[in-house]
Amino acid sequence: MNADAPIGVFDSGVGGLSVLRALRAALPGENLVYLADNAHAPYGERGDAFVADRSLAVARQLRDSHGIKALVVACNTATAAAITQLRDAHPGLPLVGVEPALKPAAAHTRTGHVGVMATRGTLASQKFAALHGTLAGQTRFVLQACDGLAEAIEHDDAAKTEALCAHYVQAMGPFGGRPGAMDTLVLGCTHYPFAAGVLRAVVGPDVRLVDTGEPVARQTQRLLATRGLLAQRTQGGLTLLATGPLMALQAAATRWLAVQA
Ligand code: DGL
Q1: How many domains in the chain?
Q2: Pocket lining: 41 vs ligand 1, CB cutoff 6 Å
Q3: Quick check: is 189 catalytic?
């Protein structure tokens, strides 16, 4: 593994840009290669076997064509379905996954009630069940599978994003700081931070929205530092790739990362 090589980052589509944003802030000297598997999106309602196959194919492509030194799985659904298989297939490659931020949410909540929005695939996974099982004793988590929401964000469909956010938030129950209400909302899909403004308007100002971009960036930095793989340059580059149309990804990167792609 070579410190000058890029870090690979992938998601089903534009969502992982929310993680990429944190990676660029924490590791400005790194070259990053971002792959949106948008020819096969969304992952969240496709089932584990499909998502695991796609994740393995994408990791292989990033290694073979770009010689990556580390891989960030910037997708909760892919992490839940495939992180173990990815580790088995790529022993020695530093790998970082994302999972819904239940632990930080449990540490933050004052009311003891936390909402969790994620894809159907993430919430149905054994990995999520194990995480939930360790924390559900002290905190009440209201789990909401948000079918269609990642897709609406992916297609930059503002009307649908607003309608689905309002629908799912209402289905979860009361939000706010008073006893019995959810004062914390976990954004358990990397697409959802791009709907944070809409969600904030629906849940109100007293609710903390929690995502995983920064912790994942810190974990990536730690892993690379431990292995002597941090790049020594001051300014890294960004390569955007997509298995489907590239234009949507470039537009999202321009909008959300202030990158001229
Ligand atoms: N962004 C992905 C996640 O974090 C999944 C979105 C999708 O393709 O359904 O779960």
Answers
A1: 2
A2: yes
A3: yes
Average pLDDT over the chain reads 96
Regarding whether 116 and 70 lie in a shared domain, the answer is no
CA atoms of 138 and 26, how far apart (whole Å)? 32
Task: Examine residue 144 and state whether it is found in any structural domain, yes or no.
Answer: yes
Of 75, 153, 207, 216, which residue is the catalytic one? 75
111 and 171, same domain (yes or no): yes
Is the beta carbon of 119 within 6 A of some atom in ligand 1?
yes
Report CA(178)–ligand 1 centroid distance (Å): 31
Those residues with Cβ within 8 angstroms of residue 31's Cβ, 6 or more apart along the chain or in another chain: 4, 5, 6, 7, 231, 236, 237, 238, 239
Q: What is the CATH number of the domain that holds 234?
A: 3.40.50.1860
Q: Is the CB of 212 under 6 A from ligand 1?
A: no
**pLDDT digits 0-9 by tens, 175-222:** 999 999 999 999 999 999 999 999 999 999 999 999 999 999 999 999
- Residues spanned by the domain of 19: 7-98+213-257
CB within 8 A of 52, min separation 6: which ones?
Answer: 81, 82, 85
